[in-house]
Amino acid sequence: MRAPPLFHLYVAATVLLAPFVAWFEIRKLRRQGLSALRAHEKMGHASQPRIGSGNLIWFHAASVGESLSVLALITRMGEMLPRAHFLITSGTPTSAKLVADRMPPRTVHQFAPLDAGGPLTRFLHHWRPAAAIFVESELWPRMLRMTRARGTMMALVNARLSAKSRAAWARRPGFAAYVLDVFDLILTQNDDMAQAMVDMHAPADRVARGSNLKSMSAPLPQNPALLAQIRTAIKARPIWVAASTHKGEETTVLDAHKTLLQTIPDLLLILVPRHPDRSDEVAKLIAKHDLTYALRSDGALPRDDHAVYLADTLGELGNWYALSDVVFLGGSLLPIGGHNPFEVVQSEAAVLSGPHVTNFAETINKMVETGAAEIVADVEALTFSVGHLLQDGAHKAASLRAARAFVQGKSDELTRIAARLIHILKLEDDNR
């Protein structure tokens, strides 16, 4: 396909702007504590050697959520391709740290090169990927076309574009068709997005509905030593978790907990704000409800007289999920979009969620249909559902069975997606 004039204009702009963008990006990474060696990955200078003699499969994601969403897929593809190695690129130090903490076997992380000729040439020459898999909305024109020009097989997975992005691409149909033509396969999150990609002039015969990879994410990490400490401290107390709560939701959670204490007096709430820097604000709210609490960031453990354990730290959510069969998932009582319910059921817990779950609508709806999740719209519904799960053993057992079945179904679906990518990207030979 011939490059449209707008693509040539974009290339010219990157030539002019690359030195300034490079200075800004490297300076930003250095200020965030990265070494000069790692910061210069933005310029395509690899900080690690190319690994292995087999095929290298490159995954490119933008930020934390997208990076973490593909770790389970990398792991599954690695099981199916034991000689393959993997490279994951992203753009933020936070994503780099979290990926490093959960790195699948035979995988390395690098910061993504700038979308400019020099950085991309160095990057592609060093890593020589056999296949490149881009995640969600990472559509950098030069990166895509230069990767394809090397003969690399390419896919877009978990494809998702906002209405604003779709409208912008729709105004440039020739440019959109030229960029999207690089992909051998485009897997979208749902049918609506599949149609949107076709409307944006993606090749219709290469577009298919996939699934939201965030609903197949790898299990959250746990700290066995910490879990042993907490379990010793709480003994046999009943527990429920309110995770990833946002401003305006903690009041509902604490009102529900206060009511539940009237019938379950030794009940412990583990409250995990989405943003730990809100710790002081949430602590004041707990005190305003006349509830006693311990603070995780102080290193404290919950005592028998503590009604709430305020878990105001990052990266420990897997521990709190492991402690309870009942988890309310925040970001859902208000129009925020919700958070990942699959991480909860992977820990064999029942999910309670508010109604505002646009980010995971398909996942939550299927979980509700199977009994692995319940929707609670207000404090009365939250109080009833938590109490019902804690006090009705048969109801809780049925919810947990549904959760386990949902996890198994997603595991099978992940295998199918991995097998499809391996086939379309012609990676089968690396399994010999």
From TrEMBL:
Q: Which residues cross the membrane?
A: 6-24
Q: Where in the cell is it found?
A: Cell membrane
On the tree of life, the source organism's domain of life is Bacteria
| This enzyme's EC code(s) | 2.4.99.12
Q: What Gene3D superfamilies has UniProt attached to this entry?
A: 3-Deoxy-D-manno-octulosonic-acid transferase, N-terminal domain, Glycogen Phosphorylase B
The terms under GO molecular function for this entry are: Kdo transferase activity
Transferase: present as a keyword of the record? yes
The 3-deoxy-D-manno-octulosonic-acid transferase N-terminal domain extends over 39-214
Q: State the UniProt keywords alphabetically.
A: Cell membrane, Glycosyltransferase, Lipopolysaccharide biosynthesis, Membrane, Transferase, Transmembrane, Transmembrane helix
What reaction does this enzyme carry out catalytically? Answer: lipid IVA (E. coli) + CMP-3-deoxy-beta-D-manno-octulosonate = alpha-Kdo-(2->6)-lipid IVA (E. coli) + CMP + H(+)
Major subcellular location class: membrane
Q: In which pathway does it act?
A: Bacterial outer membrane biogenesis; LPS core biosynthesis
Q: What does this protein do?
A: Involved in lipopolysaccharide (LPS) biosynthesis. Catalyzes the transfer of 3-deoxy-D-manno-octulosonate (Kdo) residue(s) from CMP-Kdo to lipid IV(A), the tetraacyldisaccharide-1,4'-bisphosphate precursor of lipid A.
Q: Which family does it belong to?
A: Belongs to the glycosyltransferase group 1 family.
Q: What is this protein called?
A: 3-deoxy-D-manno-octulosonic acid transferase
